[in-house]
Specification:
about 35% helix; Alpha-Beta Plaits; Rossmann fold; alpha/beta; single chain; 15 strands; about 400 residues; 3 domains
Length: about 400
């Protein structure tokens, strides 16, 4: 008579432990129904759910003896047919990936996140570290850490779950993203970025305004526009009109000093090496977008064009304007052009004029965004650099060549 048994193995990891145990079990015609293994700091945890065609104490005794020879602890837990049937049925339940980002992962982070997960009826199947090994002496300001939770189950109130996770983010100054674990998550192909305050840490129109002597006036309008308090198109015309008469040479002066966001160069190096298509969709200006295109290896650039006559800015923008609706339209256009589904597109931005773009893409990420954007976007990153997007794509540091 067959018997279902869960075998748990723990101890110091070394080559050959899994091979020795499974080689031994093969002599008993054992079926392996499930298997999982993890190694944390040279400590092995191996689990095997097995079906033994001809159960008997002889197998247990022999396996325990083998464990002593290998220097590992082995335990057996009988599994009832009813329990196995319930486990099999649950395999069809929805699955989610929760990504936790911080400068350093603390026990309080895991505790709070795990509690929210449990309170919403989800079960943790697996937890893995995506970031490189932590240097305990490293300055927290320059460090980064990421762990990924694999979740299973149904949660009736997604708004409540998201609210609970956002509360944890606010309390602990961490970032959390939760996505459905589907095929598209592992097959993103196009990533569209806003430029100002996303790829670079400044708004170029504010830098130009400072050179034109209208810095404070333009910066105030920019801030309100990005916060969604003003119509973007109207505010753009208003701000650009204040640049009338500024020398065209000022564009190069600003471009030569563009401050790149943390992690941008590594992110694009990785994306380009993996064959992803990238695009800049900006309400800023194409002059600067093209500078970044050459520097970072961006495939597409769509941004606004400043009208110039006689080496002077006229104070006008050439139509068509790249505003919120245009950004969303460009996402659809590029996806169709690349022959991919919108679910395979990632969009990243910080301002209110990015919300439509973030909503259209399969994965929309508010990056160091204004409150109205952070609250509306499905995903948000506010603590780490732009290269942390790779974690939301499931890419580990070692896979990207960082370690």
């Amino acid at each position: 008579m067959s018997e279902l048994v869960l075998i748990s193995v723990s101890g110091k990891d070394r080559p050959g432990v899994t091979a020795a145990i499974t080689e031994f079990l093969s002599g008993y015609a054992v079926d392996i129904l499930d298997i999982g293994q993890a190694v944390i700091h040279d400590s092995l945890a191996l689990g095997l759910l097995i079906n033994i065609p001809d159960a008997g104490e002889s197998l247990r005794s022999a396996v325990l003896e083998l464990g002593e020879t290998l220097g590992v602890d082995i335990s057996f837990v009988p599994v009832s047919e009813a329990s196995y049937a319930e486990w099999t049925k649950n395999q069809g339940r929805p699955r989610f990936i929760l990504t936790l980002l911080a400068r350093k992962i603390k026990a309080s982070h895991i505790a709070k996140v795990s509690r929210v997960i449990a309170d919403h009826g989800l079960n943790i199947d697996n937890i893995v570290r995506l970031s490189g090994r932590v240097n305990v002496e490293e300055d927290v300001e320059g460090s980064k850490a990421c762990v990924e939770f694999s979740l299973k189950g149904e949660h009736e109130n997604s708004r409540s779950l998201r609210s609970g996770l956002m509360q944890v983010c606010s309390e602990l100054e961490i970032d959390i993203a939760i996505q459905e674990d589907g095929i598209f998550r592992r097959h993103r192909r196009l990533i569209c970025f806003d430029m100002d305050s996303t790829l670079i840490t400044t708004e170029v129109i504010d830098e130009l305004a400072a050179l034109a002597g209208v810095g404070e006036q333009v910066a105030a309008i920019t801030s309100r526009a990005m916060a969604g308090e003003l119509d973007f198109r109207q505010s753009l015309h208003e701000r650009v009109s204040l640049l009338k008469g500024l020398s065209a040479g000022s564009l190069k002066q600003v471009a030569d000093a563009l401050p790149l966001t943390e992690g941008v160069e590594y992110l694009f190096k990785t994306l380009n090496s993996l064959g992803y298509k990238t695009a800049i969709l900006s309400g800023g200006f194409d002059f600067f977008g093209k500078v970044l295109q050459e520097k970072l290896g961006v495939d597409y650039v769509y941004a606004n064009k400043l009208e110039i006559e006689g080496d002077k800015l006229t104070g006008k923008v050439i139509e068509p304007i790249v505003d919120a609706s245009k950004k969303a339209s460009l996402v659809r256009q590029l996806a169709a052009q690349e022959g991919i589904a919108l679910e395979q597109v990632i969009a990243v931005g910080d301002g209110a004029n990015d919300l439509e773009m973030l909503a259209v893409a399969g994965l929309g990420i508010a990056f160091h965004a204004k409150p109205v954007v952070r609250e509306s976007a499905e995903q948000s990153i506010s603590t780490l650099g732009l290269d942390s997007i790779l974690y939301l794509m499931g890419i580990r540091d070692r896979e990207a060549g960082r370690i």
